[in-house]
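Our collaborator T.R. sent over the components below with a one-line note: 'Predict the complex.' Nothing else. No constraints on interfaces, no templates requested, no preferences about which chain binds where. So this is a plain run: every listed entity goes in together, and whatever single assembly comes back becomes the starting point for the next discussion.
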Amino acid sequence: EVQLVESGGGLVQPGGSVRLSCAASGFTFSSYWMSWVRQAPGKGLEWVANIKQDGSQTNYVDSVKGRFTISRDNAKNLLYLQMNSLRVEDTAMYFCARPDLGWGQGILVTVSS
Amino acid sequence: EIVLTQSPGTLSLSPGERATLSCRASQRVRNNYLAWHQQKPGQAPRLLMYGASSRATGIPDRFSGSGSGTDFTLTISRLEPEDSAVYFCQQYGYAPDTFGQGTKLEIK
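Returned assembly:
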């Protein structure tokens, strides 16, 4: 059974940083591109970033370029999202996801003073 | 960026009826890399279909997907009360992945 479990969110001040982690199991993690997707309160889904199987290629939505970094550790089956220079508008549930495998339960990041 | 437009915005049907949800892309979706997700209030999205017509693990066969190119459809036959949710389509054929705005399905 595919499982994706996020951790690391919480309340952060504007300008602050946080690192999200996603523990993957039930599939061959190193064989798949992986993504982070977010959902602001009451809003739709927004793709944030993805990373190639070996980590050699990454893509980001324009609004997070230069502030967020996606990475992975295939030996530990872990996906990461390092979020720096956070803004109030980054407040959202963040999901680890793969379009053809499923979603994690999500982790809330709240950016507020 | 591929824009996905879902219709209708809201659908209100009775148990036992059939629901037909549409997702139209602004350009062809490579390899029909189109997924459908169901989201209930306060829950994470749940994968229903991928590759336009492949059912995800554990999804009942009342759910089916069809279409290719720019026009895709999710059909839910024999609606049940628990099908009440918002349904999103997603294309993952070209970066960036994009989502439709969602169709809210209400069961009367």
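Summary for T.R.: The first strand of chain B starts at residue 4 and ends at 7.
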